[in-house]
Amino acid sequence: MSISKTESNQNKAVALYHNEAFDNGFYQYFKNIEQNKISQLLNSTDRNVKFDTITYRQLNSWEKEGLLSVQREGREWRRFSIIDAIWVKLVKELRDFGMSREQLKATKKSFEFECEKCGVAMPMLEFYTAFVIGAKMPVLILVFKDGVAVPCTFTQYKVAKERIGIDNHIQISLNDLMQEMFADVDLKPSIKNEAPLGVNEMELLAYLSLGKFESINVKFNNGKMEQFEGVQRIKAKKRIQEIMQEHKYQNITIQEEDGNITAIFQTIKKKFSKGSNPT
């Protein structure tokens, strides 16, 4: 039975994931997705995302072509999560390289690997985004001629190049892409941080980078992280009922001045998974 070039590249991608990324906690990351705070942070649409170099005409065109899956009702504004925004910027980059709609659909499919099992739209893109934010690892996205995409750390790239070889491809730095989105956050990659981190450690570091907490308190037990509590400021115009529906477990503090609500603070508590701290 003959194997197409696209299927061949997909098989190489899956082999790379199993040999490297899965060993670094891929399934552990998505094991309890409903309790995964870093995943909630990356998929939340509360953050106001703007695209300075992308027009609404382009967004409308990509949506019609099936490249965007952003949910909206009627003619309301699109609301993008961090993962959505990264994908949009990748589409723009790859369009500028001349990639076709069909090639980009293959790219999208690559990022959706194991999406049903993991419970998120783009597990591979999310997993490596967590590395960039939480561990400041240098992460590359390799996109081949047929559109198949393989995200990998710089170390994975070097090992794969030496052991199995890598076909000609477009190479995009996920770190640089995200640094453009978050100019006020230092996401400069550090080679020394390429040792595997536990999911708990990645989650905490991601919160420190993007969570916009007023304060974070981390509790330890026998030298291992057991729980953290983070205090966030919420927009005062939000209704208390809406806030309570968003998170099941939290304390709400209301700050008033002259009878008016001036600020609302919520305390989010998270118990770390046992056994997922690095040893």
What is this entry, summarized?
By secondary structure, the protein is α+β, with helices and mostly antiparallel strands.
The major β-sheet equals: 4 strands, antiparallel
- Mean pLDDT over the full residue set: 76
Structural class: alpha+beta
Helix-strand sequence: HHHHHHHHEEHEHHEEHEE
Notes on the protein architecture:
By secondary structure, this protein is of the alpha+beta class. It has 2 domains: 5-201, no CATH class; 214-271. Helices cover 42% and strands 20% of the residues. The chain has 12 helices and 7 strands. The protein has a 4-stranded antiparallel beta sheet with strand order 4-5-7-6, with helices on one face. A 3-stranded antiparallel beta sheet has the order 2-1-3. Strand 6 and strand 7 (260-271) form a beta hairpin. It is globular, with a radius of gyration of 20 Å. Mean pLDDT is 76; it is low at 17-21.
